[in-house]
Automatic annotation (TrEMBL), chain A:
The keyword Iron applies. HAMAP family: COQ7. Keywords: Iron, Membrane, Metal-binding, Monooxygenase, Oxidoreductase, Ubiquinone biosynthesis. Pathway: Cofactor biosynthesis; ubiquinone biosynthesis. This is COQ7 protein. CDD domains: DMQH. GO terms for biological process: determination of adult lifespan; regulation of gene expression; regulation of reactive oxygen species metabolic process; ubiquinone biosynthetic process. Coiled coil: none annotated. GO terms for cellular component: mitochondrial inner membrane; nucleus.
TrEMBL record, chain B:
Its main location: mitochondrion. Pfam families: COQ9 (PF08511), COQ9_N (PF21392). Keywords: Lipid-binding, Mitochondrion, Transit peptide, Ubiquinone biosynthesis. Membrane-associated protein that warps the membrane surface to access and bind aromatic isoprenes with high specificity, including ubiquinone (CoQ) isoprene intermediates and presents them directly to Coq7, therefore facilitating the Coq7-mediated hydroxylase step. Participates in the biosynthesis of coenzyme Q, also named ubiquinone, an essential lipid-soluble electron transporter for aerobic cellular respiration. Residues 39-96 are annotated as: Disordered. It is found in: Mitochondrion. GO terms for cellular component: mitochondrial inner membrane. Homodimer. Heterodimer; two heterodimers of COQ7:COQ9 come together on the same side of the lipid pseudo-bilayer and form a curved tetramer with a hydrophobic surface suitable for membrane interaction. These two tetramers assemble into a soluble octamer with a pseudo-bilayer of lipids captured within. Interacts with COQ7; this interaction allows ubiquinone (CoQ) isoprene intermediates presentation to COQ7 and facilitates the COQ7-mediated hydroxylase step. This is Ubiquinone biosynthesis protein.
Amino acid sequence: VPGAGAALRPCSSRVAQDGINKPVIDRIIRVDHAGEYGANRIYAGQMAVLGRSSVGPVIQQMWNQEKNHLKRFNELMVAYRVRPTVLLPFWNVAGFVLGAGTALLGKKGAMACTVAVEESISEHYNNQIRTLIEEDPEKYKELLQVIKQFRDEEQEHHDTGLEHDAEATPAYSVLKTAIQLGCKAAIFLSERI
Amino acid sequence: KMAAAGGLRRAGWRLWRARRAVVRCPQYPPRCALQASAALRAPSDEHKKEPWASSSQQHFDSPPAGHQPEQKPQGPYPSYTGLGGQESEDYESEEQLQHRILTAALEFVPEHGWTAEAIAEGAKTLGLSVAAAGLFHSDGSELILHFVSECNTKLSELLKNEQKLVQLGRAEKKPIDEFLRDAVEARLRMLIPYIEKWPQALSVLLLPRNIPSSLTLLTSMIDDIWHYAGDQSTDFNWYTRRAVLTAIYNTTELVMMQDSSPGFEDTWRFLQNRVADAMTMSNTATQVQSTGEAVVQGLMGAAVTVSNAGTSRAVR
């Protein structure tokens, strides 16, 4: 029973499960959790390369916010009894490689990666907000609040990336398109698997 | 006069349903019985995720609605569990009737096995025609799935009540291995009255047709046990723990089939050993991981020292 000490507590607090659209909520929380986990790893990769450079503090600050996001989704995952995606170990490696790889292209490369990813995530959160509002804004008030707040913070990261000359990266549009395609695929898979 | 009319209506209702059971099966392919099993989810159960039930249940419920109007000219086709509203007391849905038949049939399983005979006997005790067995598949799939589902519900209730006692401070919180052992033992003990015929049931559950349902029931039971054990993992551990517990449960179940010791003590000892093995494995894994991390740090430190020594020698 791996990790018996850390993740076991007397009894998990649960959200009342009656009346919620379980399949939809499951997907939303699972994919968002995977997304924040991946974002964490991307920033970790960027810090590993650029941690001691001039953009280090900027990246660190964005990373700290992502850590909070992940923590919040961990709590929501337990509360709603949602299964995490099987692909977590894969996103662990892929995220770090993406972050470190783009950071090796330089500070602008790292910022370009941030812009691409954060744009994808903002759009994705907006879709989820629309879905939840269509379902029942009252029932999912807490979840909606969380997603809205996170979307705003991701949008801030996106703007920060632009401020730091992301667009001046060589082959910016190619890089951005490739990364966003990857994000779309990751979202598709994490919702289902 | 009203009572007499009610009584007549009730008797006519029962006869009509029995007749319909004979009439229906030739009309609808065996699929209908499969979807009947889909509708057997216990209505009050909220713990289990049974996606396989929901869509086929709706599909199945719509054809009967067409037959109802001449009997009970009411509104849309509802699913009432009891009294209330404008419905007469003995109006029940297809799903509830099947639920009652299968529950009644369980009593006859030790004698007849998981077969249509047991279902027929069960239907008889409810005052229905033995043709009601025609509502179900001849290999007893629905009966077995119903039984498994009922056992899982009972287990959930048990664990929920235990949790309440702990929360109220009236009971001690068990250590994790004892909790898992007790939960698995409680669940397996529900098989004891049917133990003779259980191997047959297992083989039916493994039929390709039944695998999605039986797998869903198994995974939701294991998830329930871990939930009440206090599992809050949100990483790959979620899968590892459930896989380990599923293996423990399945192997213990198989051992139980072959066990002839008094009170199944061999089985419970086997279970205890397997759970202990799992705990050891997890402790070892944690130790290996921390040792590995310490080794890596040591190597990094050594590398830094060597490179510093090299550069200082070069400077001199």
